[in-house]
Write a structure and sequence with these properties.
The structure is a single chain. By secondary structure, the chain is an alpha/beta fold. The protein has two domains: 9-72 and 299-325, Enolase-like, domain 1 (2-Layer Sandwich); 80-294, Enolase-like C-terminal domain (TIM Barrel, Alpha-Beta Barrel), CATH 3.20.20.120. Helices cover 37% and strands 18% of the residues. It has helices at 9-14, 55-71, 95-99, 119-130, 146-156, 172-181, 198-204, 215-218, 221-232, 247-259, 298-303, 308-325; strands spanning 17-27, 30-40, 43-47, 80-82, 85-87, 107-111, 135-139, 165-166, 187-189, 210-214, 238-241, 288-290. Bound molecules: 2-succinylbenzoate (OSB) and magnesium ion (MG). One of its GO terms (molecular function) is O-succinylbenzoate synthase activity.
Length: 327
């Protein structure tokens, strides 16, 4: 496909919808996910930077949405992508109900280190997941100190393996220290990889065995593919994850995972966390999602429309980020 010229702001605004997607369970501290979606000559794109992100960071998310809507996805290597179940920091007793939303998944990613909870809560949740799913990853979202991470990772591997621990601590230096101290558990970097220059810093510091990559903060599918190529030279595999994207944004994550030379279970199953999405939810069959693009459903766009003040907020943000996204 020939790339269309970069769109003007008015072209994006012309098709823009600001949506508020209700969530089944609190995740990342939120219960509704706001996104702005728009269409271009190649299809639909999403601008969904979390509200607390500044314009410089948010503009990468817009660039990713513009790429999908004006350029489309690169050629895929496969038509289905394996995903992990994403288990929020729920009580252990709720784990079977959460996992039931991810039929056939053989890998689960479990949130740990949630504020207000204890290590015993994490151990109980992880054990409940292990009873049902063969491969378990945990994600601490930077919530532990190095000492806490060491204690927790030992406790969490007493009765079984962890494939990896995602972002156990906040900084690159701390990740490297945990990786040295807890040799038996692989470390994945997530929040430490937000800009294109971050992954090599993480790898050079010896801070991670695995890189979690997300299309929106990295500025698009092609940017993720370039990064993955660089990381492969250091022997660091990538895991493509969502940024709690709507079904439209998820198309970009699926496109990235589908275009990689190899793909392990991706964190792209988070559509299951929404009560209602912008389109009919993708069917999760045998733990895999079909790689496709979606057109939002007109009724859902109306039903999910964000309140006027939020629409105004997103349109102002779009106007500020637009010139930065095209740089
Ligand atoms: O990786 C997954 O399983 C789902 C994606 C996910 O966890 C996530 C989604 C939005 C924001 C942050 C995160 C995260 O990995 O911490
Ligand atoms: Mg993470």
């Amino acid at each position: 496909m020939t790339a269309s010229p970069a769109p003007g702001l008015d072209e994006i605004v012309a098709s823009a919808h600001v949506l508020s997607l209700p969530m089944r369970t609190r995740f990342r501290g939120i219960t509704t996910r706001e996104v702005l979606v728009f269409s271009g000559p190649a299809g639909w794109g999403e601008f969904g930077a979390f509200p607390e992100y500044d314009d410089a960071e948010a503009s990468a998310w817009l660039r990713a949405g513009i790429e999908m809507a004006w350029q489309g996805a690169p050629d895929p290597m496969r038509d289905h992508v394996e995903v992990n179940a994403t288990v929020p920091a729920v009580p252990a007793a709720e784990v079977p109900a959460v996992l039931a939303r991810y039929p056939g998944t053989r890998t689960a990613k479990v949130k740990v280190a949630e504020k207000g909870q204890t290590l015993a809560d994490d151990v109980a949740r992880v054990e409940a997941v292990r009873a049902l799913v063969p491969t378990v990853r945990v994600d601490a979202n930077g919530g532990w100190t190095v000492d806490q991470a060491e204690t927790a990772l030992r406790a969490l591997t007493e009765n079984g393996d962890l494939e990896y621990a995602e972002q156990p601590c906040a900084t690159v230096e701390e990740l490297a220290e945990v990786r040295r101290r807890v040799r038996g558990v692989s470390i994945a970097a997530d929040e430490s990889i937000r800009r294109a220059e971050d992954p090599l810093r993480v790898v050079r510091a010896g801070a991670a065995d695995v890189a979690v990559v997300k299309v929106p903060p990295l500025g698009g599918v092609r940017a993720v593919l370039r990064l993955a190529e660089e990381l492969a030279q250091y022997g660091v595999p990538v895991v493509v994850s969502s940024a709690l994207d709507s079904a439209i944004g998820m198309s970009a994550g699926l496109a990235a995972a589908a275009a990689l030379p190899t793909s392990t279970a991706c964190g792209l199953g988070t559509g299951a966390l929404f009560v209602t999405d912008v389109a009919e939810p993708r069917a999760l069959v045998d733990g895999r999602l079909r790689v496709d693009t979606v057109v939002p459903d007109a009724d859902r766009l109306r039903e999910l429309a964000a309140p006027d003040d939020r629409r105004a907020w997103w349109l102002e943000r779009l106007a500020r980020c637009h010139p930065l996204a095209l740089l």
